[in-house]
Amino acid sequence: MAQLHTPRVTLLSFEGWPNLTVADERLCHLVDEHGFTVEQRKTDTPEDAERVGVRGSPTILVDGVGPFAVGDEPVGLSCRVYVTKDGPQGSPTLAQLRPVLA
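^ thats the sequence. predicted structure below, dont judge the formating
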């Protein structure tokens, strides 16, 4: 019998960013559905953001990869904007998160 893969989800951000709460709430909403845990990593400096790959706050990584990256997001301590069907938001929607966590 094949073993199911449990995604490793990392939420990268820096202290005090308001969109972090929304992203965390949406991920936590899906924990029971998909059986993963969320590791939160905060960055304090531009150098740390560069080292861990923060492409704006919040950045969501699944198994170390940014599933929502389009390739031109700057690395650093800035605001991350996600394109959703309802326009730009500070976090991917539940509908966007479900397939990348399945």
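Helices lie at 19-34, 46-52, 94-101.
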